[in-house]
Design brief:
This protein has helices spanning 60-66, 101-108, 113-118, 123-132, 135-151, 167-183, 203-223, 243-255, 272-278, 292-301, 309-315, 322-327, 347-356, 362-369, 371-375, 404-407, and strands at 8-20, 40-48, 54-59, 71-77, 82-85, 87-89, 154-160, 187-194, 231-236, 259-264, 283-286, 304-307, 332-334, 394-397, 415-420, 423-427. By secondary structure, the protein is an alpha/beta fold. Helix 10 (292-301) links the parallel strand 11 and strand 12 (304-307). The longest helix has 21 residues, at 203-223. The radius of gyration is 21 Å and the shape is globular. The protein binds N-(iminomethyl)-L-glutamic acid and zinc ion. Zinc ion binds at residues 91, 93, 263, 337, 339. It is an enzyme of class 3 (hydrolase).
C-alpha cells in the first residue's frame, strides 16, 4: 500500500507482463537455494514518487482503480515486456588511458597475465599513460565507457582508482570520478585502490607510502568534501601486496570509515578470503583460487564473494568455484571487472558467462548482479531489488520473459529502456 497521499507522481509503468522484483521481503542479500527465487509476478504496475523512489507496486487492474485521480509526469505501457532491477556493476576500473589491445594479442599467443605484468606491461603500462593524462582527458575517456554501461542496463557502478601508484595520480583519478558523478546519469560509488607496486619501489616502501602519504591525503580531501570514496581495496596477490601489507592498508582505510572490499585469491591461493573474513570485509573479488577454508570463512563472515568471469575467460584460467560457494551459502555477486585487461562494459554478457562458465542458473546470475551486488557495496537497503521505498532503477525488456537478457547473447535490441531514479536515461531505438 502507498504511504503517500500525494496525487502527483513521477512515473507509472503499467501492464508489466512480467515483473521481477528479485526480493519482496527487504532481504539484504540472497544465499543458497533462495538465489533461485527472483519473485516474479504478472500484469503489474509500479508507481514512482517525485523523489525517484518506488511508491507502490501492485496488480495493474487494482492499481488502475486505486490511482484513478492521480497524475504522472510519465506513463509507460509495458504490455508484452518484462521489468527487472537496474544492474549494479560492483567492480570496475573505468578511469585510464593507453591502449592495451596489443597485450590481448600477446595473451592469445600464450603469454600469462603475470609474465606481461613483470615485463612492465599490464597495470604498469596503464599507469605510465594515466599519469600523463590530464583530468579532462581521463574524463573524456570515462564518459563513453559509462554510456556503454548504461546502454547495457547498469544503473549503479563501482569505480576504482589504482592506475596512479603515486599520491598525485591516485587523487587525480578519484577527482575524475567525482566529476563524472556530477554529469553522468549512472550513479557511481568510488573506491580507493592500492593496485600494484611502482617499478622504482618495493612492496615494503610502497605500502608505507600508501599508509603514510596517500591515505592521509585522501582523508584531507574527504574532510574538505572534495572526494567521497566509500570503499578501500588492495590487490592482495603473490608478488603484489601480501597478506601483511594488505591488512595494514585495509585497516588504515577502515579508520577513515571506508568499507573493505578487495582483490584476493585470484592467481595464487594466499588466503585472501581468510583475511577478508578476519577484517569483516563487505566483499572480496576474484577468488579463482579460493580454498575450502576460505569458502567457509567468508560464508561465516557474510563477506560477498564478487566473481569476475571475464578475467578467467580472457586469460583462459579456471573460473572461481561458484557452485561450491553457493552450496556453502556464500553471498555471491558478479561484476564486469571492466579494465584494460578485460574491457567489458556489459553485465548481460557477464551474466551469460556466469551461467555458462560458472554454471550458475539465470536466476542466480540475476540475484548476483542486482541485490547481492548492492550488498557488496553496502547499498542493498536502497538498491538492488524492486521494493517500495527503494530507488526506482529499472530495465524494461523487449520480451515478456526476463531470461532473454541472458539468453540473447550480444543482442542490441533486448533492452527497451533503462530507468534511473524514475527517469528514462536510455531509450533503445533499435527493434
Ligand atoms: N587483478 C587486478 N586488477 C585488475 C586488472 C587490472 C589490469 O590488468 O589493468 C582485475 O581486477 O582484473
Ligand atoms: Zn579488478
Amino acid at each position: 500500500m502507498s504511504k503517500s497521499m500525494s496525487k502527483q507522481h513521477l512515473l507509472r509503468i503499467k501492464n508489466i507482463s512480467q515483473l521481477v522484483q528479485v526480493s519482496n521481503t527487504f532481504q539484504k542479500y540472497k544465499i543458497g537455494d533462495d538465489m533461485k527465487n527472483v519473485n516474479i509476478s504478472e500484469n503489474m504496475t509500479i508507481i514512482v514518487n517525485k523523489e525517484g523512489k518506488i511508491e507502490d507496486i501492485g496488480n495493474s487492474d487494482e492499481m488502475e482503480k486505486k490511482y484513478l485521480e492521480h497524475t504522472f509526469e510519465q506513463e509507460i505501457d509495458a504490455k508484452g515486456k518484462s521489468v527487472i532491477p537496474g544492474f549494479i556493476d560492483c567492480h570496475t576500473h573505468p578511469v585510464w588511458s593507453g591502449d592495451r589491445c596489443h597485450e590481448f594479442a600477446m595473451k592469445l599467443n600464450g603469454a600469462t597475465y603475470m609474465e606481461i605484468h613483470k615485463q612492465g606491461g599490464g597495470i604498469g603500462f596503464t599507469v605510465n599513460h594515466t599519469r600523463e593524462s590530464s583530468e579532462e582527458e581521463l574524463l573524456e575517456l570515462l564518459i563513453p565507457r559509462l554510456n556503454q554501461m548504461m546502454r547495457s542496463g547498469t544503473t549503479l557502478v563501482e569505480a576504482k582508482s589504482g592506475y596512479g601508484l603515486n599520491c598525485e595520480t591516485e587523487m587525480k583519478m578519484l577527482k575524475v570520478i567525482e566529476k563524472a558523478k556530477k554529469i553522468h546519469p549512472i550513479e557511481i560509488v568510488s573506491t580507493f585502490l592500492a593496485h600494484s607496486i611502482p617499478k622504482d619501489s618495493t612492496i615494503e616502501k610502497y605500502t608505507e607510502n600508501v599508509i603514510s602519504e596517500q591515505i592521509p591525503k585522501l582523508k584531507e580531501l574527504m574532510d574538505k568534501k572534495e572526494l567521497f570514496p566509500e570503499l578501500i581495496d588492495v590487490f592482495c596477490e603473490k608478488g603484489v601486496f601480501g597478506i601483511k601489507e594488505s591488512k595494514a592498508i585495509l585497516e588504515e582505510g577502515k579508520k577513515l570509515g571506508l568499507k573493505i572490499n578487495f582483490h584476493g585469491d585470484e592467481l595464487n591461493p594466499i588466503k585472501g578470503a581468510q583475511l577478508a573474513s578476519e577484517l569483516e570485509a563487505i566483499g572480496i573479488s576474484h577468488l579463482e583460487k579460493i580454498d575450502k577454508e576460505g569458502i567457509k570463512a567468508i560464508a561465516k563472515s557474510k563477506t560477498s564473494g564478487v566473481l569476475l568471469p571475464t578475467t578467467g575467460y580472457i586469460l583462459r584460467l579456471e573460473q572461481a568455484p561458484a557452485r561450491e560457494m553457493i552450496s556453502k551459502n556464500v553471498i555471491i555477486s558478479l561484476a564486469s571487472d571492466f579494465n584494460p585487461n578485460a574491457p567489458c562494459t556489459s553485465i548481460p554478457f557477464v551474466m551469460h558467462l556466469g551461467c555458462v562458465q560458472l554454471r550458475m542458473t539465470m536466476e542466480e546470475s540475476l540475484v548476483a548482479t542486482t541485490l547481492n551486488a548492492a550488498y557488496s557495496l553496502g547499498k542493498s537497503e536502497t538498491h538492488g531489488s524492486i521494493e517500495i521505498g527503494k530507488f526506482a532503477d529499472f530495465i524494461i525488456l523487449n520480451n515478456k520473459l526476463w531470461q532473454h537478457i541472458i539468453y540473447e547473447l550480444t543482442s542490441d535490441s533486448i533492452i527497451d529502456k533503462v530507468i534511473k531514479f524514475g527517469k528514462v536515461i536510455f531509450q533503445n531505438e533499435k527493434k
